[in-house]
Amino acid sequence: MTGANGVNGVKAPKPTFPSEAATREYAASLDKADPLRALRDEFIIPSKANLASKKLAKPGLSSEPSIYFCGNSLGIQPKATAKYMEAQLDTWASIGVCGHFTNIEDSPLSEWQTLSEQASASMCKIVGASPEEVAAMGTLTMNLHLLLASFYKPTETKKKILMDWKAFPSDHYAIESHIAWHGFDAKENMVLIGPDEGTYEISTEKILSYIDKHADDAAVLLLPGIQYYTGQLFDIPTITKYAQDRGLTVGWDLAHAYGNVEIKLHDWNVDFAAWCTYKYGNAGPGAMGGLFVHERHGKVDYSEGEDSPKFRHRLTGWYGGDRSVRFKMDNKFKPIPGANGYVISNPSVIDLTTLCAALSVFDKTSMTQLRQKSFKLTAYLEYLLLKDSTDADRQFTIITPSDPHARGAQLSVLLKPGLLHNVAQKLQDAGIICDKREPDVVRVAPVPLYNTFEEVFTFVEVFKSALSQ
């Protein structure tokens, strides 16, 4: 099976649909032919009854599932989570501190000292890296802070950071604080790259022009892999190489790209990246995040002796030190080569457990397969939304790029003013969960792991009915 990038890097064409595609029967036929359809059974889908009750209730209050198109905000719970949590709690209860170096029989989890490496071994396949280049740790914003502390090295002449004009607030705050930390004015040194007036997509050419303009005064380029508001997927390899060739260090926030699109951080020579795992990654609210440091930045040089290792400066902590000497307690920091040398402290085992549970589902497929389904699933959503209408009579605009290679699962639908409340209420009444952004945007994200083509069909029916009212 080939992914959305086709064979040998040749991009697959945009999916097309026959005249009978706008029927429930056709949608059901796509689901029947879906090779990934069994993955839906790996998840607990919130029921309509539970959502309508607005009370805490046990899963399965009703057998009728909701249509959950909100994985771009919070993914749903894998069935494996309860099994993994039970195994972890049994380990803690039965052997206590010994769980650091051993585990109970038949547990799907390794001992606590190596559990983060178990997570990295699976997570690295999602972001296109080696296990040594990925660390499971912290949360997204914390990891961005740690990475900026290592990679943002401003000088009097090169101190600006190029960023997205509508960066998620946590990114904006983190960048702002690092510039100020070095004693520079944040307003003067945060360069915001936005779309042209009246548009939403930021062209690659415009980003490259900003890089050219600030090649002499910028130190870092930090962009989102996918823009959270519009759903635009940036051309990561092209932008990365162009910026690095002009002397910039390049980092990516992959919060909306992780588990959503195919990424090849190592091959694309990205300097650093960070992501959360609770959106398309399904690891749970506030789940442990991940970071990437390219292997060239994670090397440890012992040419001057074991006691004088040379390595890229970072904020250091005990758990970034090599396990072979970690418990000598001699305060001689010997970093683990690679991304794990950036780990600060003992990671939460409970957080690692939910992460490993979610990753166990990803281990049953590949990002190539998921992207191929997502490519068609979102194209089908777009086709049904636009069918039988024109720009002139439509009460909404899709502000996500129409090129399927320039987006992930999400479509951001901009409604005409005054419609959002009614549409959102009608969707909720029908047991359809998707994200709304004031004042007028509905973000719809059919996730290939657990969403279906028939759910897409139903959503569009309800959505258009709400608009007609």
Written description of the protein model:
With 469 residues, the protein is an alpha/beta fold. The chain folds into two domains: 152 residues, Aspartate Aminotransferase, domain 1; 214 residues, Type I PLP-dependent aspartate aminotransferase-like (Major domain) (Aspartate Aminotransferase, domain 2, 3-Layer(aba) Sandwich). It is 33% helix and 12% strand. It is built from 14 helices and 15 strands. A seven-stranded mixed sheet has the order 4-10-9-8-7-5-6, with helices on both faces. A four-stranded antiparallel sheet has the order 11-12-15-14, covered by helices on one side. A two-stranded antiparallel ribbon has the order 1-3. Helix 9 links the parallel strand 7 and strand 8. Helix 3 runs antiparallel to helix 11. The protein starts with 23 loop residues before the first helix and ends with a helix. GO terms for molecular function: kynureninase activity; pyridoxal phosphate binding. Its cofactor is pyridoxal 5'-phosphate. This is Kynureninase. InterPro entries: Aminotrans_V_dom (IPR000192), Kynureninase (IPR010111), PyrdxlP-dep_Trfase (IPR015424), PyrdxlP-dep_Trfase_major (IPR015421), PyrdxlP-dep_Trfase_small (IPR015422). One of its GO terms (biological process) is 'de novo' NAD+ biosynthetic process from L-tryptophan.
